[in-house]
Structures are given as structure tokens and as C-alpha cells.
Amino acid sequence: MTQGPYHLISIGILLILSYLLSQQMLRMGLFSKQVHRKAWNLLLLLFFASTAMLGLLLAVKVNYKLEIPWIEGALLLHVDLGIGFA
């Protein structure tokens, strides 16, 4: 495997700063608390769904010993999305 490092710090900092920025915009009254909650719930749903789909793909690959040329990129994306979901 020649995959690169996981992006734990950069994804974590990006999401924390994004949340703090959206929280500040909420306090300034740019959008309602309901819109803020729905937007972040949608983001979490997207992270969860994509992480789950890639996880299932990786499980199928391992169980059926399939040769998928782009699987290392999918594994990296799976882990990065999982970090964002966490």
C-alpha cells in the first residue's frame, strides 16, 4: 500500500473553524437557530452516508477478494470522511 497520511489535523481544524464561524453568524442574526441546526445535521448526514457506503464497498472488496485499482484512494477518503463525521 502506498497511501499517504490521514488528514486528522487539517480536517479537524477546518471543521472546528467552520462551526465557530457559523456559530458567530448565528449570534449575529444572519440565520436562525433552526437553519443552523439543519445545515449541520445535513453535513453530518452526508459524512455518515458517504463513510458508510465506502465502508461497505471496502468490506465487499475484502470478502470477495476483488481487485479494484482505485481502492486505496477510496480507503483514504473513507478514513478522512470518518474523521469529519467524528
Characteristics:
3 helices, mainly alpha, 86 residues
Q: How would you describe this structure to a colleague?
A:
By secondary structure, the protein is an all-alpha fold. It is built from three helices and no strands. The chain has helices at residues 8-27, 33-63, 71-85. Helix 2 (33-63) packs antiparallel against helix 3 (71-85). The radius of gyration is 17 Å and the shape is elongated. The model has no long low-confidence stretch (mean pLDDT 90).
Q: Taking Cα atoms only, what radius of gyration do you get, to the nearest Å? A: 17 Å
Quantity of strands, as a count: 0
Largest sheet: none
What is the helix/strand order?
HHH
Tally of separate helices:
3
What is the percentage of strand-forming residues?
under 5%
Shape: elongated
Q: Percentage of helical residues?
A: over 70%
Residue-averaged pLDDT: 90
Helix- and strand-based class?
mainly alpha
- Low-pLDDT stretches are none
| Beginning-to-end CA distance, first to last residue | 25 Å
Record the SSE blueprint.
Layout: H1 8-27, H2 33-63, H3 71-85
Helix pairs in contact: 2-3
Quick take:
This protein is mainly α. It has helices spanning 8-27, 33-63, 71-85. The protein is elongated and about 55 Å long.
